[in-house]
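Let's practice the habit of predicting before peeking. Look at the sequence and jot down your guess about where helices and strands might fall. Then scroll down.
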Amino acid sequence: MDDFLVVEGLQKAYGKIKALDGVSFRVKRGEIYGLLGPNGAGKTTTIKIITGILKPDNGNVFVFGKSPLEDPIYVKNVIGYVPEEVILYESLTVKEFFEFIASIRGLNRDDVIERVLVLVKSFGFSEYFDTPILSLSQGTKQKVAIVAALMHKPKLLVLDEPIKGLDAMSARVLKEILQMHIQNGGAVLFSTHIMELAENICTRIGIIHRGKIIAEGTMDELKEMAREPGADLEEVFLTLTEQIESIDEYLRDLRRIFS
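Done guessing? Here is the structure:
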């Protein structure tokens, strides 16, 4: 199966506000698909529906052919998920938390201990292995969540703003892990509003704006859609979301008051 994830016509409203208005895309084996959009565009709502946390008003999601609504345990077992807002059991130490995750996933401790120790060392928080999570910085908690998502060797990683809070070295390590993951036949969906990150590592990008996928493709394909062959992703994004003229207007006003 090449389509690890299929999203079809997702709709979700919060009262009168349409968070999602017909979102559709696919994530295939061997690709890093970036869901790119500003805050409030619908990225996190989409990911929460994919992981079974939210129920859509309309539309379907299939993870390896299974619906998160009809088979939520299967879906949670085959993906590695890092949410935008990391929530951990803060009374546990880092070691105890990983042991807990291994237990609920039914993993053999001997099978995962080396993997966990290598990941912890690579992300640079070995010294906190016996430290209560409560006392960790937000960035270190983010690293704990990433390692927990990788423990069971999932084929599909679903990451919501995964770089947030990471130091430069850890961000580089994560990027390298994502490349290794797809080279080994996995796939990645991650949401971000960081243009440089999406441009550097994504195989394909879906631009979400006001609850809709307004453009999708490789970087070259997006440039062609925007008729900006020499542009970077930021310029392409602003053009496709029809914000470039507003930016120019704001800059004229800013230059006037700062002159």
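How did you do? The mean pLDDT is 91.
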